[in-house]
Amino acid sequence: MAFIRLVAALIGFVFGFFLGASLLQVTQVTPPTNQIYVVLLLATACAILGWLGAPYVTVLPARYVVNSLREASAGDLIGGAFGAAIGLMLALFLAFPLSFLPGEIGRYAPLVTAVVLGVMGATAGAVKRNELSAFAQGVRGSRRSSSADARVLLDTSIIIDGRIADVVRAGYVRGTLIIPKFVLAELQYFNDSPDGSRRERGRRGLEMLAKMQKEETVKVELSEEEPAGNGADGKLVTLAKSLGIPIMTNDYGLNRVAELQGITVLNMNDLAKAVRPVVLPGEEITVRVIQEGKEAAISRTARWWSSRTARGTSAPSSRSR
Questions:
Q1: Helix, strand, coil in percent for the chain, rounding step 5
Q2: Which tens digits make up the pLDDT trace of 119-159?
Q3: Residue 279 contacts by C-beta under 8 Å, 6 or more apart in sequence?
Q4: Pairing mode of beta strands 218-223, 175-180
Q5: pTM for the full model?
Q6: Which DSSP category does 294 fall into?
Q7: What residues contact residue 158 under an 8 Å CB cut-off, 6+ apart?
Q8: What is the crossing angle of helices 268-275 and 163-170, to 10°?
Q9: 238 within 8 A of 191, measured Cβ to Cβ
Q10: How far apart are CA 201 and CA 193, in angstroms?
C-alpha cells in the first residue's frame, strides 16, 4: 500500500508541475519567484491528493472486483461473459453509423455505446443465465429423449433415506440429479455433529451420494447457486422454481410448500406405497429379525423372535392394514 501511495504521489507531483507551468502561460503572475511558488504549491497539492486518494482508485476497486468474482458462481460468470460478448458485438455493428455523427459526438459515441451495451449485456447474462443455458442447449442440437434430459433436485432427507440409490441402480431414475451446495453443506454439518445420530445420518447421506456418482444411468451434478430463501427448504423451492424442475424429497412439509407454489414433487414414500406388495386377508407373513436394535426392549424382542425361530416355532400370522 505504501508503494502504491508513493507512486501515486509522484504522479500527482509531476501532473501538478506541468499543470502549474501551463497555467503560468495564461496568467499574469510576477515576479519569477512567485511563479516558482505557484508551480511548487500546485505540484505539492497534487502529490498530497495522489497520496490520499491512491487507495480509492486502485486497491479498493480491485478488492471489490475480486470479492464480487469470488462470491459469484460459475454460472454467473459464464452468463455475464456471454451477455457482454453479445453486447459488444451489437456495439460493433453500431460503431460505423455512429461515427458519422457531427463533431465530437461522432468520435466518442462508438466508445460510449460499446461500454454501455457491454455492461448491459453482462448484467442481463448474469441475471438470465438459466434461460440462456436452456436456449444454448436447444440451439446446440436436437433434443434427446425426455428420460435422458430429465433433471431433478434432491433434498437432504431423500439422500439420507438411501432408497434413491437403490432406485437409481435399478434404472428407474435417469437423467441428472442436482445437489445444491447448501444441501451438501447440511450433510457435512450432520457428518461433523457431536450427536451420534446426526453424525450417522450425515455419513450415510455422503455415502449415498458417492454410490450414485458411480452409477452410469444418472449424472450427479453439484450446483453452486445460492438462491434467496429461508433455510434449505426455502432455497430449494426457489431454485426449483427458477430452473423449472421437480424436487425429490421425503419431507412432508417441503412437499406441501412446493406443491402450493406449483412445483412438481417426487416423494419416495409415495413410490414405496405404490410398489409395496399386496397382502390379502388370511395370508401368513413370516417376520425375520436380521439385526438387534440398540434399545433394550427392542433387543429383548429380537432375541425372543430369534429363539422361537431357532426352535422351529412358526411366527404368528399378521394382516396388513
A1: 65, 5, 25
A2: 888 887 777 666 656 666 555 544 444 444 578 888 888 88
A3: 285, 319, 320
A4: parallel
A5: 0.45
A6: S
A7: 164, 248, 249, 250, 268
A8: 60
A9: no
A10: 10
Q: Looking up cell 447457486, which residue turns up?
A: 225
Give the end-to-end CA distance of the chain in Å, rounded to a whole number.
Answer: 76
Are the C-beta atoms of 20 and 43 separated by less than 8 Å? yes
The residues near 23 (Cβ < 8 Å, ≥ 6 apart) are 38, 42
The C-alpha cell at 153 is 433436485
Whole-angstrom distance, CA of residue 105 vs CA of residue 113: 11
Return d(Cα 262, Cα 80) in angstroms, integer.
Answer: 29
For residue 135, the model assigns a pLDDT of: 60
Evaluate whether the domain defined by 146-275 bears CATH number 3.90.1150.10.
Answer: no
Instruction: Give the pLDDT of residue 313.
Output: 46
Cα 24 to chain centroid, rounded:
59
Rounded to whole angstroms, what are the CA distances from 130 to 59, 123, 232? 33, 13, 20
Residue where the block lists cell 478488492: 63
Which amino acid is residue 146, in one-letter code? Answer: S
Query: Which grid cell is 213?
Result: 456418482
Which cell goes with 286? 413370516
Q: Could you give the maximum distance between any two Cα atoms of the chain, in Å?
A: 124
Task: Tell me if 54 sits within 8 A of 10, measured CB to CB.
Answer: no
Q: Where are the domains of the chain?
A: 2-59, 74-132, 146-275, 283-315
Distances (CA, A) of 96 to 90, 108, 116: 11, 12, 16
State the cell numbers at 156: 437432504
